[in-house]
Design a protein that fits this description.
By secondary structure, this protein is α+β, with helices and mostly antiparallel strands. Helix content is about 30%, strand content about 25%. It has one domain: Heat Shock Protein 90. A 5-stranded mixed beta sheet has the order 1-2-3-5-4.
Length: about 150
């Protein structure tokens, strides 16, 4: 987050991290992959937010039956969510978000730039770590991307 804080400040955005009390002081996992995913999600949130805030939240969650089947062993599950007050994503574009080289619209690609690879790569990395990534968004209100990992 320190890496992206200057970009958020330049845009006049508040960038914050909120951690649920009671989480262990250290978690085991692939720090490099997780950093890449979070950097991409936060960078996107900053890019598509013109005013307001970008918040990263971390909390402990109970795994679903499907998630339990994905991961081996008795592990603590966490959910990391990146929430913004940005432009939001139209419902018809949500299904294309995690497809390589796909953008929500051609107008978005022209206005904001990017290759359309970041979310596709993030999804692959999360799945390699036996996790999942989801998105909820409302145009004009903002987006919330959540990563669940063992």
């Amino acid at each position: 987050m320190e890496l992206l804080a200057p970009r958020a400040q330049e845009r006049g955005l508040e960038l914050s991290f909120r951690e649920e009390p009671g989480l262990p002081p250290a978690l085991h996992g692939d720090a490099l992959r997780l950093r890449q995913v979070l950097t991409n999600l936060v960078a996107n949130a900053i890019k598509f937010t013109e005013h307001g805030e970008v918040v990263v939240e971390m909390r402990r969650v109970e795994p679903t039956a499907a998630e339990t089947a994905l991961a081996t062993g008795d592990r603590l599950w966490v959910e990391l969510c990146v929430r913004d007050t940005g432009i939001g994503i139209p419902p018809e574009a949500l299904s294309r978000l995690f497809i390589a080289f796909s953008q929500a619209s051609s107008g978005m690609a022209r206005r904001y730039g990017g290759t359309g690879l970041g979310l596709a790569i993030s999804r692959q990395l999360v799945e390699l770590m036996s996790g999942s990534i989801t998105v909820r968004s409302q145009p004009g209100v903002g987006s919330r991307f959540c990563v669940r990992l063992p």
